[in-house]
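SEQUENCE-TO-STRUCTURE ENTRY
===========================
Question of interest: how does this chain fold, as expressed in backbone structure tokens?
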Amino acid sequence: MNSQLEHLQAKYVGTGHAGLHRYEGTVNIQRDSYASYIGHYPILSYFALAENESIGRERYKFMQRMLLPCGPPPERVDD
């Protein structure tokens, strides 16, 4: 079971690994979501319609949110 999990984690970058911090995993998920919203025009137009904004403005907002999707990283304590 562990060897299958390690194989999947090595094969797919977004699946993480044992040393991955919770913040880093959450950032990966948020960035993947924003990239999907930008890449799929119907979803992007849905967000634009729901927020009464232009599609270009929504695309810009999503790209800006990709910089720090979960806020600044937490302070790390080195052991």
Remarks:
- The mean pLDDT is 86.
